[in-house]
Amino acid sequence: MSQSTTIATPSRSRRQIVLHVLAAMFGGYVFAWGTVALATCLLFAAKLDFHDAEFLGAFIGLLVYVTVFLWSIATQRLLRVWIVLFGGGLLMAGAASLVQSLLA
Amino acid sequence: MFNSFRQAMAWLHTWFGLVLGFVLMAAFFFGALSVFDREIDRWAIPATRIEAQPMPSFEKILRPAFERMQPTKEAIDAMRPRVNGPMPTHFDKVASWSAYTTHRDPVLALYAGYQVPNAKDPEELIWAYTTIDPRDGSVLPDDHLKIGSGFFFPLHYGLTLDWKNLGIWIVGFSALVMLTALISGVVMHRKIFREFFTFRPGKARLRSVLDLHNLTGVVALPFHFFFALTGLLIFAGTYYFPVGHTQLHDLHDLHERMEAQETGLPHQRAGVAAGLASVDAMVAQAQRRWEANDKAGDVGFLVLQHVGDANGYVSVYRAGTDRIALVGDGIHFKSSDGKLIREDPAATPVARMAEFLTGLHLQHFRHWLLRWLYVFGGLAGAVCIATGFIFFVEKRKRQHALQGSQGARIVDALAVTTVTGMVLATLGILIANRLLPEALPGRGDWERHAFWAVWALALVHAGVRGAPVARGLANPAWREQTWAIAVMAVAAVALNWITTGDHLLRTLARGYWPVAGIDLFLLGSACVAMIAARKLGQHAHAKQAAQRENAHA
Amino acid sequence: MHESLSANLMLAAALLSSLAGMAWLALSMQVHALQVWPRQPSPTTLRLLRILGSFSVCVALVLCLAVDHATMAVLVWVMALSAAAMLVAFMLSSQPQRLRVFAPWIR
Fold first, then answer.
1. Where does B143-209 show beta strands of DSSP type E?
2. Residue A87: inside a domain, yes or no?
3. Residues B525, B461: contact at Cβ < 8 Å?
4. Is A57 near chain B, with CB under 8 Å?
5. Touching B: which chains, 3+ CB pairs < 8 A?
6. What is the pLDDT of residue A102?
7. C-alpha–C-alpha distance, residues B338 and B280, integer Å
8. Contact check, Cβ <8 Å, A54/B7
């Protein structure tokens, strides 16, 4: 087993790890929720059956959660992760409520 | 934070894999057992060792059984905080009666949902459950625990930790981590195609354990990925991302109203009492319609909505025995006069995809080869996780021994508990099931206690025997618990014989595979455990002999 | 799934086809060919084994589709390939010479 896959102790503090992990877990969840909500609304607005929209929305949301989770751990830019995940997630959720108010 | 993407993935795979691996072991192992949940039920409840039964007559069997059902005292007490005012002693506004069966069910589970007067949420329902023998409608006592479908199955998706659905959340998060572990594993494993068939048991321990971890992970990669993903999808709408019930509640209601209008299936009660026409006639009509569409089949799901009301309707669904979808081809009738309201049209492409993805996980289809291949996949996943733990410990125990750290010892003890300990707990509940008196009140609770007690004992044993790990050596608990598995598996088969008379020669001669299959699997496991235990013993002796030689040299 | 004899025979054939396919694919790799035969087979032989293996894997799919609804057949096929690959890996690690039976024309 070569050197480049050995588990290297991160060069910065433990605080960094905690912040990356928190971003991945909770920021990821907020971003995923926003994705699910917005995707569901938009798909329903595009005349998909509501339960179909919910399912596809959840499917997309889960794949997005996995992706941003990996990104949060791998990236060097901690601040960007926090802003994109929490901010982006809330924005998408807000947009979903907006779409809902237009439809319902 | 990390020097490269690969390093980051390696860190993620190692540490999240380690922590959530303990939960994933349970999900994979009990998920594998759940493939044969109804067969395990029959082993555990000898009174149900009959042939699988089709959906029985509503008039003769189901209706009297439904009418006798009422929620339990516990359910009523649990509902109290959600009600403003007095609670009735008898619930009589039935929201729905339903029964679901597959080609593997000897007994039938019935569900009754009742409206709750004065509830804070007007859509609140209180539920009653019962299990009956479909041949005569007799009720199964509800403290006969269905060890397969009522214990192992909920354990695999929720750890039976029901407080605020905490267990479901933990398993859900671990499924997410599983997906990231698979992807990060592929990123880390640079020779994934070259080493596809590679397993070198003769090489150094660290190398051969890693080979096995890679082999079991890669060879069944589609299985691992899809089961984690579909598991998450199944619970996404209800638990993990319940957008339809919360943020998008208005859209959900809009859809319900639109659907009720389009389909002619009323969403609410009319408030006008009405009778019930012959449901058996409706079922017969449904079966004729399926046959006319070249889809002759059995009834899988029968639902009566708004029972006793003018808006009541009966829905008959075809069992998906021969395909992936759980049920389909629903046909709906007006309860009061049996007139056809609607024949469900073909599913939309998205709905078909949803049926495929959920159906492939829940497996209500009839296909014995595919079921056994699923068990293989589940056990491969369990081996992948177990070898992951072993690799983690092997890699660090010498280091930790030199540093005087207890880390490797702790992880090793937890690994023993989660691998051999979990199997011992499983055997423990089967043995308790055979040993406890038939008429013991709360028998199901005692069986559950036995399960957790054996597991706790395994943890203590692994911890106490684990001192050598802190010196960089192997934990003898592995070998000892493996021997215990062999002994207990044989004991379970023997106890089945002694307490029910259903020994292997008899069940095989009768062709009663549900019980014979379990006994054979137990005996097979005992053989595997014995071989493994002896190998571990040989390693230990070899190590001891080498150490003595070193001491003399 | 019809539990007729012909269905079971076809499924058995699908399993065998999966096993042969995985065995040929494994044998088409230099490192495993060397485990099984004393001499390294020629690159042409290895390529032939790879083609044979891929073909056999496809035949397995066709057999699965002949027995079951497409939604189930695909799952049976994928899982059969996984099990076959595992079996081949264990054979390679314990008794590699046994795999010679899949290509008896190679010395």
1. none
2. yes
3. no
4. yes
5. A, C
6. 92
7. 10
8. no
From chain B, the residues in CB contact with C83 under 8 A are: 373, 376
Domains of chain B: which residue ranges? 10-45+368-552, 49-152+250-362
**Could you tell me how far CA B469 lies from the centroid of its own chain?**
34
Amino acid making up residue B549: E
DSSP 8-state assignment for residue B139: B
Q: Is residue A2 part of a domain?
A: no
CA distances in angstroms from A53 to A37, A42, A48, B256, B292, listed in the order given: 10, 8, 6, 14, 32
What CA–CA distances, in Å, run from B311 to A31, B267, C49?
A: 42, 8, 67
Cβ of B241 within 8 Å of Cβ of A36? The answer is yes
pLDDT digits (tens, 9 = 90+) for B93-132: 999 999 999 999 999 999 999 999 888 888 889 999 999 9
Report the distance separating Cα B204 and Cα B545, nearest Å.
18
Give the side-chain half-sphere CA count within 13 A for B227.
Answer: 29
Are B298 and B321 within 8 A, CB to CB?
yes
Report which of B146, B147, B104 is spatially closest to residue B513, judged by C-alpha positions.
B104
pLDDT at site B307: 93
- The amino acid at A38: L
Whether residue A17 is contained in a domain is answered as no
- Identify the helix (H) or strand (E) that includes residue B130: strand B125-132
Which residue range(s) make up the domain with A71? 27-103
pLDDT above 70: residue A12: no
- For B:9-28, CB contacts with A below 8 A are 9-12, 14
Chain C CB contacts of B198 below 8 Å:
31, 89, 92
Q: Which of C44, C47, C54, C45 is nearest to C17 (CA)?
A: C54
Residue pair B154/B142 in contact by the 8 Å Cβ criterion: no
Contact A70 B184 (CB under 8 A): yes
Residue of B nearest to C14 (CA): B369
Distance from CA of A70 to the nearest CA of B (A): 7
* Sheet with B340-343: strands ordered across: B125-132, B108-115, B94-100, B299-305, B313-319, B327-334, B340-343
Q: Measure the CA–CA gap between B350 and B356, rounded to whole angstroms.
A: 10
- Flag whether A86 is in a domain: yes
